[in-house]
Amino acid sequence: MLLVTRFVAGLAYAGFFAVAAVTAIGLVTPDRNARASGVVVSGLSVAMVAGGPAGTLLSHLTDWRGGFWGVVVLTLAGAVACAVGLPATRPAAAPSLAGELATMRKPRLWGVYATTILSTAAYMISFNYLAAVLADVTGIAEAWVPGVLALFGVGAFVGLSVGGRVADRRPHHALVGGAVGVAVLSALLAVLAEHPVVVVPVVFLLGIAAFVLNPALYGRVFAIAAAAPTLAGATTVSAFQLGISLTPVFAATALDLGAPVTAVSWIGGILALATIPLILIDRTARP
User: Fold this and answer.
1) What does 167-217 look like in DSSP terms, one character per residue?
2) Among 2, 19, 87, 269, which one is most buried in terms of CB atoms within 10 A?
3) Least confident of 84-98, 155-169, 270-284
4) GO CC annotation: what is one (predicted)?
5) pTM
6) Where in the sequence is the domain holding 136, given as residue range(s)?
């Protein structure tokens, strides 16, 4: 039953995210598409900072069901906020499935999706194993680990704010800068993981570099697939989720071969560097 509920929750999350991104860009002028999508994605960073600790606290104050009931309440509140807060718009013509599928055949679009998958895996692999690195290598007290993890979420919020503004004007600058930043910071995390004075600010900066990428990725998708925003937006969400899903595969392969836990950050750096040729190809390709 738990597996079924997780599947349903994931389906609802992906569907909401896709529609939310399309709705957001529909409320702004085209030159603000990346910033609008960045605002939507910023909700993810807020959840990253507050969701885990809040769910744990609720479960401690009640029982294991408390966190789930909290999700129910927040979901209902979000539904009410959407119903009340979104401005009324004229009904749009139903999208043409044939037209959207034709747009989805553009090679440049799939290049951006590949960039999304690799870049997401690049920073999430370090984040997913960060608690283990902090406890086993850095030697940070267990009570301080959640606070350091929260710094990544705070950095993500900053990165989204900065990235949204840069991506509207220079999307490829944001993409290259974010990818290089993730690569360099991942390498620092791998090499200097034993030094808390280095690790703590690196975690914050990694959050910034990682989430500078996201508004630019969304912006490129909607620029290339302007005629198919719904399907393209939904596929973007799938690309993000695929990148997240690949992180345990890459990490488990390295750890099973006997690599130390810091090796996951090296993998993240390599994945980040692998996105740069794709970004440059997209920049130089003809529309």
Assistant:
1) HHH-HHHHHHHHHHHHHHHHHHHHHSTT-HHHHHHHHHHHHHHHHHHHHHH
2) 269
3) 84-98
4) plasma membrane
5) 0.84
6) 2-75+96-284
